[in-house]
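pasting input
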Amino acid sequence: MNFVWMVAWRLLREGRFQTALILAGVSIGVGVIVYITAIVSGLQANIIERTLSTQAHVVLRPADIVNQAPLTVPGSVKLADIAKRTQRENTIANWGGIVARVRGMPNVSAVAAMASGPGVAQQGGVRKSVVLMGVELEDYQQVVRLDNKLQAGRLLLPTGTALIGKELAADLGLQPGGRLRVQTATGGSQSVTVGAVLDFGLKDLNKRWVLLPLREAQNLLGFQRDVTEIYVKSERLFEAESLAANLALVTGLTADSWQSSNGQLVTALKSQTASSLMIRVFVTFAVALGIASVLVVSVVQRQREIGILRAMGTPASRILAVFLLQGGLVGLFGSLFGSLLGAVMAEGISRMAKTEDGSPLFPVALDGELFVTTALIATLVGVLAALLPALRAARLDPVVAIRG
Amino acid sequence: MTLEGVKKSYGGGKSPLVEVLHGIELQLVEGEFAALLGPSGSGKSTLLNIMGLLETPTAGELHIAGTATAGLDDAARTALRNRYLGFVFQFHHLLPAFSALENVMMPLFAGQGRVTPQDRQRAAMLLQRVGLADHAAKRPVQLSGGQQQRVAIVRALMNRPRLVLADEPTGNLDTQTADEVFALLHELNREDGTTFLIVTHDQRLADGCPRQIRLLDGRLQPDGLLSPAPSASGR
Ligand SMILES: Nc1ncnc2c1ncn2[C@@H]1O[C@H](COP(=O)(O)OP(=O)(O)O)[C@@H](O)[C@H]1O
Ligand SMILES: [Mg+2]
């Protein structure tokens, strides 16, 4: 049996009321932190997932064509001319090699080429403007999941078929097996069969997106064998920006990460993260102060016992360790209770608050890592908070206690 | 243990400087059983605390088991204290959060940081020796005053100290219990050869001690010299 553990444990057990008080304080603090973290990260993960469910992490497009810098007049210096001119339909040729090269790069999990352009869908006299997206379905599904979006039909895309959004299907009165005509401004026109109706999760996409086999889209849009975009899925979502920079360098194409295409969302997420961090930091401070103040009182109350222990030959360092350990134990146990409390609160709120379709309004992210880090931090904070009281205990003059 | 010209002053700074001990010369012989007598306020506790390395003398030198103690840091003094000295206080000063057995083990536990089953056995044996075998698991509050003091006495013996310093160990016990406790101290001294220095102002108890050291106003009276009864006022 170890002296420090035994004495720390006994003192905590003996000071029942104080220990209960301090544990309650730590538990509530940790509970709030766990609750907020679970809700915020759950919410963020959900928003990101929803946003990215129809997007690639990085999209490669043809490099912008910028005006050639005019000849400089002697005596003047023209630093840059970044005014763009009209971007002509600019496509990526020889994309096969690029796709192969990108596939081999680190942090890339899937690549899909796409030939897209504007078009009109027509059926029974109704005309709707749409986006024609020519894809190799196998590749595309690696980047954008479709199986969870399937409403009707089958996820197959042989020649002569199209996959369309559910709003478009409703507007044109179409079901799988139905036929529609797609036309492009360049004069291309073809009749296709609806293979499946999809729900992309956004009304605008459901109205406009028409997935076609790559070859047919290329023909309709007059791209020959070129594509317009290369979709890249990254292995690590939050490293998409560096991946994009890397891809731009390697391919010479323009690369946009999901972060740069969703700037507002990223800003919102960042400020939400920052404010939840603030709350956590302040709660942690409050908890630390609580631990410190209760321990200071405990040191004063136990002055005599500390003096006796010192008189019997307990090294000051061992007294220090006893009180540091008390802080650590309080932090650890408080964080266990607190994690439980926070988890229960978070689960409770996610059960209570539901959207109309019955899915939880607050999806919570309660993972083991959250509990482990919380316990570690709480233990550390407990030890640090105990530092001042522990130093005070270690410096107590035993004579004062014994004479008293 | 040897003391050479030990002086102790309190105060200084704002409060007046008061010298409590004026040059104490004292040598304790291994295995002896000595009483330290003197009226209240004569400096007995101060002297004992200095000998116990709990306070540092203002001047003079203190040797324990051949080691000079002046200038030692707290850790070294603590280690010496733990190794060579046992304490019995007037108010038993047992730790309320621990059982009698744990209290007895505490000096060893505190010094080494851990205890072995053998240590536990030794503590149990010590308790048995003072007739408290059945009370080993009890907390101090569940024991009578005499029992508490007996626990405190064997606690002082746990580390097999060379010297036990007892500051009025019978001070708040009734006469009969005080006699019993004193007899116990005698017995332990005879059986183990541990040196005892016992502060008392009870002349009757001191009379049973082979050596009587008298302190008056911070000065030691020559050994064996009959001085006025301690009940008389200091000057
Ligand atoms: N910490 C201190 N500060 C100032 N004076 C003290 C202190 N401790 C003891 N004294 C004084 O020293 C004198 C001796 O005290 P003490 O050693 O306790 O005497 P005794 O134990 O013989 O009754 C007393 O006058 C007491 O007031
Ligand atoms: Mg005294």
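fyi The CA atoms of residues 146 and 173 of chain B lie 7 Å apart.
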